[in-house]
Structure formats: C-alpha cells, structure tokens
Amino acid sequence: MSDSGWSEGLDESQLEAVTHGAGPLVVMAGAGTGKTRMLTARVARLLESRVPPERVMLLTFTRRAAAAMTSRAAAMCGDSRIGQRVWGGTFHAVAHRVVTEYAGVLGLSAVTLLDPEDVIALMDLLRAEHGLTGTGTRFPSSAKLAELFSRAVNTQRPAREVIGEEMPDFVHQSDEIIGLFRAFMARKRQQGLLDFDDLLLCWAQLLADPVIGAKLRRRWDWVLVDEYQDVNRAQVEIVTGLRPDGSGLTVVGDDAQAIYSFRGASGAHLGDVLDRHPEATLVRLQRNFRSVQPVLDLANVIRPGYGDSRLQLTADRASVRVGKPLLVHCEDADTEARMIADAVLDSQQNGLPLKEQAVLMRAGSHGRALEVELAVRNVPYVKYGGIRFVDTAHVRDLIAALRVVTNPRDELSWYRLLCLHRNLGRAYSRALTPMLLTADPDTNAVLASSPDKARTALAATLAHLATARSTEVAADRAAACLSAVRPLVRAHYTDWQARVEDVDRIAEAAGAHADLAAFIAELTLDPGSSSADYAKAPHKDEDYLTLSTVHSAKGLEWSSVHLIHAVDGAFPSDMAVSDDHGIEEEQRVFYVAITRARDTLSIYTPARLPVDWNGYRARQIHVKGSRFLTDEALETLDIQEQAAVLTAAAVDTGNARVSIPTLDHLFG
DNA sequence: CAAGTAATTGTTTTT
DNA sequence: CAATTACTTG
Predict the structure, then answer these.
(1) Can you tell me the distance from the alpha carbon of A319 to that of A445, in angstroms, rounded to the nearest whole number?
(2) A1 pLDDT band (50/70/90 cuts)?
C-alpha cells in the first residue's frame, strides 16, 4: 500500500469499502459515519492505481459535493489537475453532458433545456391556446400543472391517478388537464425541448439502445453513486444501464435519510441493488465521527426503525462533557427569532464563528421572522432553499438574451425578450417570435410588423443581439447581451437600480466563461451553488450564518444547529400528515435535521404561529409541539422555558393629561 | 392591442 | 402578502 494519504485515518469498515475490488459494492452508511471521506478515498485509490480519471463517474447529490470530492481525491494523489477529468456531478448535470453529446442520435440538432420556469411559461401558453383561460371556471395554475406533470413522470403513475390524489378539487377536469399534458409533450417533441425529467429519461433511453448503450457502457469502468436512497426509477435505470452486471459499481446511502419520495425516490432502491446482485459486498458504516453522544441519543430515538440495535449510532468522538440537546419552549415566532439571534451572537462572542452555526427549517418560509430579526441586528446570513436568485424576473431576462444568442430557435426566450419592450404585449410578441427563429433573421421585416411605438427599442435590442452572435469572444458576447437587456430592465421595472446591478453581475460571470452554452446549463442545473455565488450574499471570506431548509442541508454539518418551528403543522408539515407514508418521511426529515449537529443542538417549539406562514394576517393559532418529540425523545432533551418576558410595571399617572400633537401649523 | 387596475388565490421539500 | 388572473380603459 502506498502512502499518498488516502488511507490515513480510516477505520476498518471504511478501509474495507475503500479497498474493495471490482465487484458490486453497497455501503449502508448512517449519518455522520464518514461516507464522504470513504468515497473520496475510494476515488483517490482508483486514480492512484492508474485508472484514467475519465473512466470514473461520480454521481452526487450536488455539483458542489462532486467537485469537492474529486479535487480532494486528486490532491491525495498529488495531481490536482486530474480531478477535473473525472465525470462528476448530479445525475442531471451529467445527463446534460451525455445527451448534448448524443443529441443527433435523439434527433435533436441541439439540446434546448427547459428549466422549471420555462415549463410553467409553456404550460401557460398552451393553456391559453386550449381556451382554458378566462372561462370563469377554476382551473389549476400553470405552476400546479407543471408540478403535477413532473410528479406523474417521476413516480411513473398515470396522470389521472395523480390528479385524484394531489388535486381532488380538479378531478372533474381531468380530461382537459390530460389533453393539455399531451399538447405539452407534443410541443416539446416538435421543438426539441427537454425539461429536467427528460434529461434523465433520454439518458436512460440512450443506454437502453443496443448500439449506443454498448458504446456508452464501454466509456466508464467505475460508477460511484452517493445518496442512493434518493434516486428515482429513471435514475435506477441509468445506473443499471451503465453497469448491468454490477461490476465497478459502488452505491452509498442510508434509507433512514430518504427524504425525496415526492420526487419518486425510494429508500428501497438501496436494498434492491443487493437483490439484483446477490454476490454484492455489503459494508455498513456505523461509527459516528460527527456528533457528540447526547445528540446521537436523540437521533437514535427519532430514527425510524428505533429499537433495531444494529442501526444505533454510537459516537466515536472523545467524550467531552456536554449536556443534552435543548428543547426551547417559546411564545411565538418573533420570540423564537429573538432567542435564536441572541444564542447565535452569544456563541459568536464565545469564539464560535457564524459559519459553524446554522438554523434549519422544514419549509423555506418558516424563517421569515428570523430573517427580519437578523437583518435588524445586522447579522450576515445566507439562506439556502428559498426563492432562487436565478428565478428572479430580471435575471431570467438576461438569461433569455444569452439563450437566444446560443440558440436562435429558443422560442420561449425570444417571446420573453419581446414582451419586455414597451408597447409590445403578448399578442405582438407571439406574432413576431416565429420570424426570429432562424440564424439570420430578417430584422427589417420584424420591425415593419411591430407597433410604431416599439420600433426604436426593438431595433436596438436586435442590433445588440446580432452583435453578440457575430463574435466568438465570450466577454464581448456577454457585453452585447448586457447592452441589449440593460435598457429594457431599466424601463420595465420601477425598482430597476438593484436589478441592473444583478444583471451586470451575471453578465460579468458569463463573460468569464469561455463556453456560453455550458455557462447557461450550469446556471440552470445547479442553482444551489450559483444562487449563493451571484446573489447579494456576504462575500465568501466573510463570516456568515447559514439558514437552510433541511432538504438543502443534506450532507452538511455544523458545530451548532438550531431547529425552528418544531411544531405539528410545520414539522411535520400539515400537507404530509394525511397518510402514514407522509408522516414517516417527515420523521426522516426530522432525523436528517438532528444529525447535522456536531456539538450543540437546540429545538424550538413556539406556542403560537400565524395561520398563514407568511405572517401577514395577524391571526395566530395555538400549536402543539411536534409529534416526533415523544416522551422517549423528551428524556434525551433538557427543557428550557422561555425566560419570563419583561412586563411593564403599572405606572401611577395621577391626574395628568397630555394632548396628542395636531400639527395644525403644517396645514394652515 | 397594451397597460393599468381590481379581484382572487395560494400556500413543502428540489434537480 | 405577493403573484397571478380578470376586467376596464385609452
């Protein structure tokens, strides 16, 4: 064994997984048991044994995770360059690369990727075409339709069934909805558009083809998949398509952390690999290197399958004397926010950087009151899992310009750009769009067909975009797109100042990228890192607190974790409590949240919450602590009542009378 | 036909 | 409350 470092600090089970040979390998790794370290070391070992990096595929949950793992693995081998040649990323990101490469085989001249917002826009368009708007009858919103369609595809269930389950209010309109879905599929096919789900389906389809599939299989010898409990059917098909006999296949996961069933994932997929390949090696990682024992004591009670001693997590860390996690009862969301801000700043005073602390929540909206409090107190923070930066209107406007430059046949982007002009509305934009879908559009004809009032602005836009298309220099292209969009954004939004700044930033980033199409794909496929990178976030070197949904916190860890809104209705979400599957999944989400904490964990249960999570209506309702905080769970917690709120002492005012200022002198 | 205004409606998690 | 849709006005 060479000493380049990959084996350092690995325990026996981890080492077994790392050094395992070519047979199928299944690693069941509990939370915090060092699976990232194990995967990194396994990749490093492969690279060191002269496996060419481009023959290794590492599929992870986020692009960031793949990048971190491959670069660390490469560093262990002493060559930081080769990490970039490993095929790493999310299923969707890699699918995009593969499908782009084989676009011709699929009958596409180029891959036009529809991001979720585009899907909604297209649904909207089709709904109007089908006369399903303005008829007085209620019909699901375009966003709901897009969600429904994706769910049917992901879970491989008939749309009719999904409608009945998810939107019983609209079952009587099932025929119209399904008709719309058929039109949606037809339009996508006709124009060669692929949405996120299509990327996976196309990759699976390529693998299923006898000729292309064989070709693809020959390209990779090693396929490693992280978070396998969160893959759906299409992803299983891809993995088995890549390694049908299981050789060179490594899958890693933890069925207790399966939290994506709404996307068609199933924790059972992990065990399925063992059924499919009886000769597979199973390695269990059980020693927890992350958290202190008191945190694990709670986690073990929350974990589904409680009682099965094989699944109990045991802390490996030298046991520092630490207390139990805290359960904090508080009055309402505002008090909760104040107490968390206090606690976070207090820890910071005691030397714990903000970057070592996080606030986790079930839904992005649960952090509203806290965000206000943090802003007031000037505590820098970054939020993951809310509205994405790339989804804001003006950012999408610029992206539309970038997209029509790389692909003039992108109808939705043209339509969006046209609508941005004053005096150009839906009707004119729809009429003009077809004239622009060629490599060399007849500008004069377009201008002649547009309203007089819009002509000057439109001419300028088209000229800038033509300039952008005429150059190959990335920076010039981006600059020309910016010139096209900047005046439109300025004229279209009343609060244009901040928006123009954002647009400038994206254009700058686009200019720094040599491959514009790849930049756009990256931006749409990996919003996780891009939102934090481009948004008006604190700079990377600055210290900041993390706010995150539990889903976005998957795989991450902090020294101190605050879990907010741990009350029934919020966590578990009241959308999920109608059936056992839903509740079980919520429990796993709860488990994931708890196991993010290394040293200290505080759970907050406000007694009252607004009826609407937006908090705009003053009305609040009393809520009960989360059902997951059972008696057994409570035994592992220290309970803290909210410090008595200071109440105003009764003041003796005597006979004093004070009049309210009238300000009459201002209005005489 | 576009733009402005009034009414309505929707609420989880993400690639 | 914000975002979308429906209706009115120029």
Answers:
(1) 77
(2) very low
Specify the long-range contacts of residues A631-636, CB closer than 8 Å, at least 24 apart.
Answer: A632/A301, A633/A298, A633/A301, A633/A302, A634/A327, A636/A294, A636/A297, A636/A298, A636/A301, A636/A324, A636/A325
In the numeric block, which tokens belong to residue A480? 């020309």
Q: Which is more confidently placed, A389 or A88?
A: A88
Q: Which nucleotide is nearest, taking the CA of residue A143 and each C1'?
A: C4
In this prediction the pTM is 0.89
N residues, chain A: 668
Closest residue by C-alpha to C1' distance, nucleotide B8: A138
Amino acid whose CA is nearest the C1' of B13: A551
Distance, in Å, from the CA atom of A515 to the CA atom of A498, rounded to the nearest integer, reads 27
Closest nt to A589 (CA→C1')? B13
Give me the phi and psi of A120, to 5 degrees please.
-65, -45
Q: Helix or strand or coil: residue A133?
A: coil
Q: pLDDT tens digits, residue range A551-567?
A: 989 989 999 999 999 99
Average pLDDT, chain A: 87
pLDDT digit string, tens, across residues A197-215: 999 999 999 999 999 999 9
Nucleic strand C within 7 A of Cβ A141: yes
Please give the nucleotide, over all strands, whose C1' is closest to the CA of residue A450: B1
Burial track A31-50 (b if 16+ CB lie within 10 A, e otherwise): bbbbbbbbbbbbbbbbbbee
Sheet of A281-285, strands arranged across? A87-89, A56-59, A222-225, A249-253, A25-29, A281-285
The amino acid at A376: V
Q: Is the pLDDT of residue A290 over 90?
A: yes
Query: Residue A531: what pLDDT?
Result: 45
Q: Which nucleotides of strand C lie under 7 Å from a protein CB? A: 1, 3-7
**Per 3-state DSSP, what percentage of chain A is helix, strand, and coil (rounded to 5)?**
55, 15, 35
Element containing residue A386 per DSSP (H, E): none
Distance, CA of A455 to C1' of C6, in Å: 29
What is the spatial distance between Cα A604 and Cα A626, in angstroms, rounded to a whole number? Answer: 10
Residue nearest to nucleotide B9 (CA to C1'): A141
Contact (CB, 8 A) for A560 and A597: yes
- Determine whether A607 is exposed, middle or buried from the number of CB atoms within 10 Å of its CB (0-12, 13-18, 19+): middle
